[in-house]
Specification:
- The complex is a heterodimer of chains A (about 120) and B (about 110).
- By secondary structure, chain A is mainly β.
- Helix content of chain A is about 0%, strand content about 50%.
- In chain A, strands 2, 4, 5, 6, 9, 10 and 11 form a 7-stranded mixed beta sheet that branches. Chain A has a 4-stranded antiparallel beta sheet with strand order 1-3-8-7, with no helix packed on it.
- In chain B, a hairpin with a 5-residue loop joins strand 5 and strand 6 (about 45-50).
- In chain B, the strands form 3 sheets. In chain B, strands 2, 5, 6, 10, 11 and 12 form a 6-stranded mixed beta sheet that branches. In chain B, strands 3-9-8-7 form a 4-stranded antiparallel beta sheet, with no helix packed on it. In chain B, strands 1-4 form a two-stranded antiparallel ribbon.
- Classes of the chains: A mainly beta (about 120), B mainly beta (about 110).
- At the A-B interface, strand 4, strand 5 and strand 10 of A face strand 6 and strand 11 of B.
Chain lengths: ~120, ~110
């Protein structure tokens, strides 16, 4: 299947700083990308959906000014957690889909720890 | 709203044992149903899917049947291997095209011992 690469796999940052997570589609053009968040022992929760060149659509309850999503090209989307706090510590996963395929392919996830 | 409930883990089995991971869902209409697997250090991979009632998805010896009457999509395998050790997620999707969203269960960690 198609490959989606997410970077970094783990990151530790200090409270108040910002962290950027990258999601790349390596062998296809990702017209749509999804960002999920997973708390320990909880489901993956969809945070936002982004289409290339458009503003992201955020799910209810997700702060768009805190979780900045950029999908400027067909192979790259970024999630920036701004002014991170310990409660933002979580597992973040992206997935990507091209315009021909209804299935989305997932990255390996990023474990964010805010201290 | 839509939701997926799957069996709490962790599940520990010996090699060649039978596996069942229960999954039930709540959704309006006719969602598509999925099982994803996440091996250690890797992203989620689609394991199998079913798009309508009574469909059976199968892959790598795993099977699941879309049961609308019981709103279930239980994952089964007759003989597990050590290499099946992973976290398994049940999920549903409604909508078509760009509006589709996946709703996941909490995941069930499976460990298979030799």
């Amino acid at each position: 299947g198609a490959v989606v690469s997410q970077h970094p796999s783990r990151v530790i940052c200090k409270s108040g700083t910002s962290v950027k997570i990258e999601c790349r589609s390596l062998d296809f053009q990702a017209t749509t990308m999804f960002w999920y968040r997973q708390f320990p022992k909880q489901s993956l929760m969809l945070m936002a959906t982004s289409n290339e060149g458009s503003k992201a659509t955020y799910e209810q309850g997700v702060e768009k000014d805190k979780f900045l999503i950029n999908h400027a090209s067909l192979t790259l989307s970024t999630l920036t957690v701004t002014s991170a706090h310990p409660e933002d510590s979580s597992f973040y996963i992206c997935s990507a889909r091209d315009s021909w395929n209804t299935e989305a392919f997932f990255g390996q996830g990023t474990r964010l720890t805010v201290v | 709203g839509d939701s997926v409930t799957q069996m709490e883990g962790p599940v520990t089995l010996s090699e060649e044992a039978c596996l069942t991971i229960n999954c039930t869902y709540t959704a309006t209409g006719y969602p598509s149903l999925f099982w994803y697997v996440q091996y250690p250090g890797e992203g989620l991979q689609l394991l199998l899917k079913a798009t309508k009632a009574d469909d059976k998805g199968s892959n790598k010896g795993f099977e699941a049947t879309y049961r609308k009457e019981t709103t279930s999509f239980h994952l089964e395998k007759g003989s597990v291997q050590v290499s099946d050790s992973a976290v398994y997620f049940c999920a549903l999707r409604r909508g078509q095209g760009g509006s589709e969203k996946l709703v996941f269960g909490k995941g069930t960690k499976l460990t298979v011992n030799p």
